[in-house]
Amino acid sequence: MNANEPVQLLSVSRSYGTGPNSVTALDDVTLTIPQGSFTAVMGPSGSGKSTLLQCAAGLDRPTGGRVVLAGTDLTGLNETALTLLRRDRVGFVFQSFNLLPSLTAEQNVALPLRLAGRRPSGAELRDVLAAVGLAERARHLPGALSGGQQQRVAIARALITRPQVLFADEPTGALDTNTSRELLAMLRDMVDDGLTIVMVTHDPVAASYAHQVIFLQDGRVTSRLEAPTAEEVANRMTRMTRMTDTAGRTPHPETAGC
Ligand SMILES: Nc1ncnc2c1ncn2[C@@H]1O[C@H](COP(=O)(O)OP(=O)(O)OP(=O)(O)O)[C@@H](O)[C@H]1O
To answer: So where does this one cross the membrane (predicted)?
Structure first.
């Protein structure tokens, strides 16, 4: 294992329930997310994408294997240590923006630092809002911002602690096509400036903004694409879905066109 990489999963499994009703959401997943990379996670519904993200981000505990996040092995960390690690080293963005409606954009962005007992400087807030293109909207309430602008505030809030890695679960899922593309271009620029992003998405175009796409099926990594185009991603997804439909089970990775 290379402790310098921001996220490493070693034989990670996650099951829910026990006995005949148990579900294996992740099945022996090993992968490394390199520093400064943009990784998209794709796969059919129920393939384990969100579970992968949650385990990798320390929001959920695997039932087997190890996760090393920002150089720290999460195995055996108590809840307090895990909470602090998440707060200080990791950013999260979800499909729903989860902004507090009574706070301005700037106040929403400041929240993580305030929760950590720090008073953010005006310059810090201005810089991060400028980085997401919202310098002029700092004093607006979320209700006075468009969906794309609200998601930018959520991204600024995730970045205010200068995390080593940003985890995003369907960050463009609630946005229209053009707004999505603008947001993805912004995320890609941030990666080009050194941020590491892991993003779950259903959208082949969104995935094409990433450096690599990891495909999951039945909780397993079945293939990868480097420097993906939207068309390649869409074709791979279609093939995965068709193989599952006709065989009723997941093809072996060796035969899945990795
Ligand atoms: N809390 C839970 N309890 C029981 N089963 C769960 C739980 N969370 C997820 N699962 C199951 O684990 C599997 C993987 O779920 P997960 O949400 O990770 O898939 P996904 O690929 O993100 O799906 P989607 O694209 O539909 O969001 C599914 O079969 C799901 O039903």
So the answer is: none
